[in-house]
Amino acid sequence: AIAAAVAARFSPGPLAGKRVLLTAGPTREFLDPVRFISNPSTGKMGMALAQAARELGASVTVVLGPVGSVDRSGLEVVDVVTAEEMAREVLGRVAEADVFIATAAVSDWRPELRAAQKVKKGSVDGPETLRLVRTPDVLAEASRKVSGQTRRPVLVGFAAETERVLEHAREKLERKGLDVIVANDVTAPGAGFGTDTNRVTVLTRTGAPRELQGSKDAVARGILELLPVERRPSAG
Amino acid sequence: AIAAAVAARFSPGPLAGKRVLLTAGPTREFLDPVRFISNPSTGKMGMALAQAARELGASVTVVLGPVGSVDRSGLEVVDVVTAEEMAREVLGRVAEADVFIATAAVSDWRPELRAAQKVKKGSVDGPETLRLVRTPDVLAEASRKVSGQTRRPVLVGFAAETERVLEHAREKLERKGLDVIVANDVTAPGAGFGTDTNRVTVLTRTGAPRELQGSKDAVARGILELLPVERRPSAG
Fold first, then answer.
1. Fewest Cβ atoms nearer than 10 Å: which of A23, A190, B106, B214?
2. Catalytic residue numbers of B?
3. Correct CATH for A2-117+130-233 of 3.40.50.1980, 1.20.1290.10, 3.30.413.10, 3.40.50.10300
């Protein structure tokens, strides 16, 4: 890591001078002080992309949901817990970024109410219903925010799917106004949450889908090599 | 750890020959393949107790919910994900244990239905309701299971509370038929989820409450020293 840091400092690297903003990890949406809705994201793929971007010369900021210990060396890391916190931190930074890569597995819903005290088991009989409301769509809001800029960041999304993977990913690329989407079938062996390897398909607005597989580090480098790194003239 | 293992092997230790069964970590209750209800337990307090019991000479089995990397050396570890899996593994082992210590933060509710595929955001408009049903109460079921035994294991529970901590803990001790309960206020500074320190109150059926604080390792040793280690004549 020291050698990589020195290399990044003294050789320009293809991303030298670029500001990369990333989201990584899950979010947690609390029902009460001790219970939440979340997902199994460990942030590994996002942190692999962050470190790969840094090694290519970029200055990297990661807005990071709650994960175990990860390698933060050489990165600016902003820790958040909920989707709303993640949205706020991203929206305050995305306009200045050259590349925005949304790898976080943001909870789509949160409990409508968060109880101030732990709900006691005995206080509810039979089935309980939990009312859920939508959380901010961090990537779609970031895309909307920069769509009017003369030069806007390259926008990269991830689609973790369990069925009709490419179809869902292509739809998400269009709907959220992205330049690139990285699709993966989280149910495939050697892919998805908590694994050290990944197998993804990179889709752009034009051009054929490209498949990448291997360690998350190798897949991260492969994804960065496929990105257009100049800020885009706005479509709007 | 090697020195401790050697010491445990060649000197009897106060728990030599005792079988300690422990639960640790959170459980996850899935809504669909990628979303679950859980809590912030990292399993640290439970794993500290497991290692402390091993160092005192016990043979230790941990039924462990999903946590990051933990020190499993010298322990039998049974990995589980859901409350139902944890209940099954505990109920199959508790009758043979000399001590059962339930440190896991078991989810009290699970979604009534688990969707086979990831639920798409666009497929639901407005607030969504999630129907929750109760999960098995692992500790209460284990207590019931052994209550008819001539000699039953010493039963130790944990109460993670956010208010009226001792009152809630005392009520849980009685209701679940425990010998000992370890109460902690998870909202107190230096206590609770994810911290390396803890501050707890140990309550028994008789005798004054005892307070312990310090590193989770030190608190673990303190708790074990307060336990009656002979199997109990059944109250039933």
1. A190
2. 39
3. 3.40.50.10300
Q: B235 CA to chain A: closest CA distance, Å? A: 24
Helix or strand or coil: residue A8? helix
pLDDT in tens, B34-91: 899 999 999 999 999 999 999 999 999 999 999 988 999 999 999 999 999 999 999 9
Q: Note the ipTM here.
A: 0.81
Q: Which residues of A218-231 are buried (b: 16+ CB within 10 A; e: fewer)?
A: ebbbbbbeebeeeb
Contact check, Cβ <8 Å, B129/A130 = yes
Q: How far is CA A153 from the centre of its chain?
A: 15
Chain A nearest-CA distance from B19, in A, is 30
Candidates A219, A223, A216, A143; CA nearest to A181 is: A223
* Residue B117: pLDDT over 90: no
Determine the Cα–Cα distance for residues A199 and A201; give it in Å rounded to an integer: 7
**Portion 30-49 of A in contact with B at CB < 8 A:** 31, 33-40
Quickly list DSSP for B11-56: S--TTTT-EEEEEESB--EEEETTEEEE----SHHHHHHHHHHHHT
Q: Is the pLDDT of residue A236 over 50?
A: no
Pairing of strands A59-64, B197-204: unpaired
CB contact under 8 A, A37 and B33: no
With an 8 Å Cβ cutoff, are B162 and A69 in contact? no
- Homologous superfamily assigned to B2-115+133-229: CoaB-like (3.40.50.10300)
**pLDDT, position B95:** 96
From CA B220, how far away is CA A126, in angstroms rounded?
Answer: 36
Is pLDDT of A148 > 90? no
Identify whether the C-beta of residue B75 lies closer than 8 Å to the C-beta of residue B55. no
Question: B131 and A131: CB-CB below 8 Å?
Answer: no
Q: Where are the domains of chain B?
A: 2-115+133-229
For residue B145, the tally of other CB atoms under 10 A from its CB is: 15
**Distance set, CA A214 to CA A2, A219, B201 (Å):** 24, 6, 49
> What digits encode the pLDDT tens for the residues B183-205?
988 777 777 777 788 889 999 98
**Whole-number Å distance between alpha carbons of A77 and B187:** 25
Bridge partners, residue A63, by sequence:
A23, A78
Name the pLDDT band for B21 (thresholds 50, 70, 90).
very high
SS3 call for A63: strand
Q: Which of A34, A120, A162 sits opposite B33 (nearest CB)?
A: A162
A36/B37 CB distance under 8 A: yes
Closest CB to A39: pick one of B36, B39, B40: B36
